[in-house]
């Protein structure tokens, strides 16, 4: 059988973990992932590691933050007056809120994680929770469906 090429669709199993070993995502034999090479369903670095693989082959790849969930951007961490939430909720660190953000004159609902609660305000982070962290993938190629 030919190894994985650009126009192939493949079936894979994988685990995605932080470098600490904390599991982020897993697709096993009971729920494998089908990936069309070049489709962008998985990050480009993982797609690239599939090239040349043959069924049954395994690879481990470390994906840098900029190629995974992006770098952590300080400008996406903001303070919001605690009075804004008065009577609506009791903010706690770790809570994820859906906040309205104005972009180009339109309102968009965006998730934000509360990182700190102070006497008069809260700190929210609009970055993806995995931003700034490298991800380690262990990928096994199951089949190539050309």
From TrEMBL:
**A molecular function (GO) term:** peptidyl-prolyl cis-trans isomerase activity
Give the Enzyme Commission number: 5.2.1.8
Q: What is its main location?
A: cytoplasm
Q: Name one GO cellular component term.
A: cytoplasm
**Compartments, record wording:** Cytoplasm
Q: Which reaction does it catalyse?
A: [protein]-peptidylproline (omega=180) = [protein]-peptidylproline (omega=0)
Which Gene3D superfamilies does the annotation name?
A: 3.10.50.40
Descriptive protein name: Peptidyl-prolyl cis-trans isomerase
UniProt lineage: Bacteria, Pseudomonadati, Thermodesulfobacteriota, Desulfobulbia, Desulfobulbales
């Amino acid at each position: 059988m030919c190894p994985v090429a650009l126009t192939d669709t493949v079936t894979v199993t994988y685990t995605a973990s932080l470098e600490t070993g904390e599991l982020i995502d897993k697709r096993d034999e009971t729920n494998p992932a089908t990936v069309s090479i070049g489709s962008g369903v998985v990050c480009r670095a993982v797609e690239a590691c599939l090239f040349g693989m043959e069924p049954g082959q395994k690879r481990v790849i470390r994906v840098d933050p900029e190629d995974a969930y992006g770098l952590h951007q300080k400008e996406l961490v903001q303070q919001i007056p605690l009075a804004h939430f008065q009577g609506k909720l009791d903010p706690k660190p770790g809570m994820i809120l859906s906040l309205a953000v104005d972009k180009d004159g339109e309102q968009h609902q965006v998730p934000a994680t509360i990182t700190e609660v102070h006497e008069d305000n809260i700190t929210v982070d609009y970055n993806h929770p995995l931003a700034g962290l490298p991800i380690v993938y262990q990928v096994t190629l199951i089949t190539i469906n050309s």
